[in-house]
Write a structure and sequence with these properties.
About 80% of the residues lie in helices and about 0% in strands. The chain is mostly helical. It comes from Promicromonospora umidemergens.
Length: about 400
């Protein structure tokens, strides 16, 4: 028996109300993680000027971070499988804290890049273990709601964390912003240590005759997850370019992105309310709204009002994407919850980094107007996988 499985705990999975403290801690920690990952997006010009490097080079702080997570999620999760789960999460948050303070004080771009690499390695573990942890806090038939509530933290990071860090950077400088983020990370670390109950690790499915079927279902969910993220980020990475080309004033871009990002919370709440009752229907609706929104962006562009309205619809749909795929993957029982989390985390970050690269190729080749159409093809492909794979995406939660 591993150390993680022997972790002292009196915790018994129950309902969402009973797990509220732990879910709140995970949601706050996820908010901090997403804000840390994406803070350089809004601060990119300031970091570039401050360190006297080009903006494309500075942009690698985000791209390389995503690819590090994609590459390290599975191996680091497996390597740390014997460590107590709670201690591992708290430790990951402590590493985020150290990473951010190094960035804030770094004298050169090389030091910043090294600190970001440290944060990326931490994120590879944190995001993977969080998925399994949230599912372990409640009874299996409530996993969808638990994961939906935790992903509200991620949606809030997109909606508020990144815009607020950008505004703070413009007001007091990017280094001070990372110092503030350091304090928020430290607070999340303390609250997680205080509020999160210890749960046992392990949980690998039995090596019975259905193991191959379960693994195939898990691989199917992971593939659909990668396609959805590829499609989304091939367009979303360049949302500012699209909005400016559609006539949004530069001064209005920040508020527009804040509004569009905040609408993700609606999608996250929708997923939390429905995934434990109608998971397949919820997944289909989610991807249909995302695909419809991206297609509408392409059709409305370059009209200002139509493009913004379509982007709002798309954002609502994408707010549910993380929860629907995390829940579907956990319920395949194709591996232990932590390995499942690592696969979902890895494929999502392949989509983030690969989508940005694909969108850049389309943008440079066919032009701005073609970007949404490239993205919608990939999201529709993810939807087709879901429609065909009834075992991986069942109509109702399967009793375990």
């Amino acid at each position: 028996m591993s150390a993680a499985e022997r972790e002292p705990t009196s915790w018994q999975p129950g309902d969402v109300r009973g797990a509220a403290g732990g879910l709140l801690a995970l949601s706050l920690a996820t908010f901090v993680a997403v804000t840390t990952e994406l803070a350089p997006v809004g601060l990119l010009p300031l970091i570039s000027d401050g360190l006297a490097v080009s903006e494309p080079l500075t942009g690698l702080l985000v791209t390389a971070y995503a690819f590090m997570v994609a590459a390290l999620a599975l191996p680091l999760t497996v390597a740390t499988r014997r460590l107590p789960r709670k201690a591992l999460l708290v430790g990951a948050l402590a590493v985020y804290t150290v990473s951010n303070v190094i960035v804030a004080l770094a004298p050169t771009f090389a030091v910043v890049a090294g600190a970001r690499a440290l944060g990326g390695a931490s994120h590879a573990v944190f995001a993977s273990v969080t998925i399994g942890y949230a599912a372990r806090l409640v009874r299996p038939h409530l996993a969808g709601r638990a994961l939906g509530l935790v992903t509200l933290g991620a949606s809030t990071g997109f909606a508020l964390g990144v815009p607020l860090s950008t505004a703070l950077g413009a007001a007091v400088g990017w280094r001070t912003t990372f110092l503030v983020l350091t304090g928020v990370c430290a607070l999340a670390c303390v609250l997680t240590a205080a509020l999160l109950p210890s749960v046992p690790g392990g949980g690998a499915p039995p090596a019975d005759g259905a193991r191959g079927v379960r693994r195939t279902a898990l691989a199917t969910v992971a593939s659909a997850n990668a396609l959805a993220y590829l499609g989304h980020y091939s367009v979303y990475t360049y949302i500012s370019v699209l909005l400016l080309a559609a006539g949004i004033a530069t001064a209005a871009l920040g508020p527009a992105l804040l509004l569009i990002g905040a609408l993700r919370l609606i999608g996250a709440a929708f997923a939390a309310a429905r995934l434990d009752v109608r998971p397949r229907q919820t997944t289909v609706i989610t991807l249909a709204v995302v695909a419809g929104g991206i297609l509408a962006v392409g059709l409305a562009f370059p009209g200002t009002v139509g493009t913004v309205a379509a982007a709002a619809m798309w954002s609502i749909g994408f707010g549910a994407v993380a929860a629907v795929f995390q829940t579907a993957a956990i319920r395949t029982h194709g591996a232990s919850p932590d390995v499942v989390g690592a696969l979902v985390n890895s494929t999502a970050n392949i989509g983030i980094g690969g989508g940005a690269a694909l969108g850049a190729l389309v943008l440079d080749g066919a032009g701005t107007a073609a970007v949404p159409y490239a993205g919608v093809v990939l999201v529709v492909a993810a939807l087709v996988v879901v429609l065909l794979a009834r075992r991986a995406f069942p109509a109702a939660p399967v009793a375990t």
